[in-house]
Amino acid sequence: xKRLKVTSEIKYEVAIGDNYLxxxxxxxxxxxxxxxxxxxxxKSLVKVKSSKNLYFLSLPEGESQKDLTSLSRVWKELAKFNxxxxxxxxxxxxxxTTDLAGFAAATWLRGISWYxxxxxxxxxxxxxxxxxxxxxxxxxxxxxxAFYSPRKVIIDLDFLQHLPKRDISAGLAEVIKCGxxxxxxxxxxxxxxxxxxxxxxxxxxxxxxxxxGSDFKESKERELLNYGHTLGHAIESDSKxxxxxxxxxxxxxxxxxELSQILRGLDQEVVSEHREILQSFNxxxxxxxxxxxxxLKNMQVDKKVKNGRIRFIGLxxxxxxxxxxxxxxxxxxxxYERITK
Length: 341
Prior knowledge:
- The chain is α/β, with parallel strands linked by helices and 341 residues long.
- The chain folds into 2 domains: 2-162, Rossmann fold, CATH 3.40.50.1970; 169-337, Dehydroquinate synthase-like, alpha domain (Up-down Bundle), CATH 1.20.1090.
- Helices cover 43% and strands 19% of the residues.
- The strands form 3 sheets. A 7-stranded mixed sheet has the order 1-2-9-6-5-3-4, sandwiched between helices. It has a two-stranded antiparallel ribbon with strand order 7-8.
- A hairpin with a 2-residue loop joins strand 10 (312-317) and strand 11.
- Helix 9 packs across helix 12.
- The relative contact order is 0.11.
């Protein structure tokens, strides 16, 4: 088991290789009441039952749980069982579940404790780390939220055994992102015949922990973690979430590399490396040409937009991320043309 400390508005531990059942027993001892949020289909895998002062709330699958309807249901449960500031919420599931759990905790009594038990690879390396919580708005992804860190993140690697290959690949997109922006050893590790998941999760979490520790509320440095995400979020929304988050980000990574070549002269070998390593895990790297007008509109509501200008994270080389400011629509269109079907 590997452990990392994340320093944000609080200090908390990420336990990689921990057993979630043992962790839940500890959480129950430390709080008077605990509400577990979990997608309905996942509940059959979790070997815990409701008991005195331990309650379950089943949620829809995927991004459909990240809305005001689900949030209202959580609030009603908290009110029903009279949850106070000594009580806690536990989110067991993918990134959508931990996002919702954290935001519900942040907004109940202006903040109660919460814990993340990520069950997808994407959530293990990204969504559950860093304290970003929230739900989606009709106008865009993650536009309603708060920075509110968990008390602990418990990463039980056994959950990976139950994930479809598609979800493993989608999670690897976030791992690959970390490799390109901060830790090239991740990319080397992913080329080996057998993937050491404990190691690549540890390295990815370490990348995020260092960045979050220096810029918790995303004043600038933390924006580096959004490499590939500006277009990725727009594609995810455009696909009506039929594409996994990591699949949309995969396309966004190739786009960001192409944009970096146009604006910063990024070496063609690095651009090609994006395509090769993403395709090796059956991740998409292109999107229909006809969707560009809608994607451009979606990107206009990205959190990095300033003064009406869409800003991106790019690369000068592997592990050399840069901010691409004042990007023209012509350059965006040129880079997008290179990734169209």
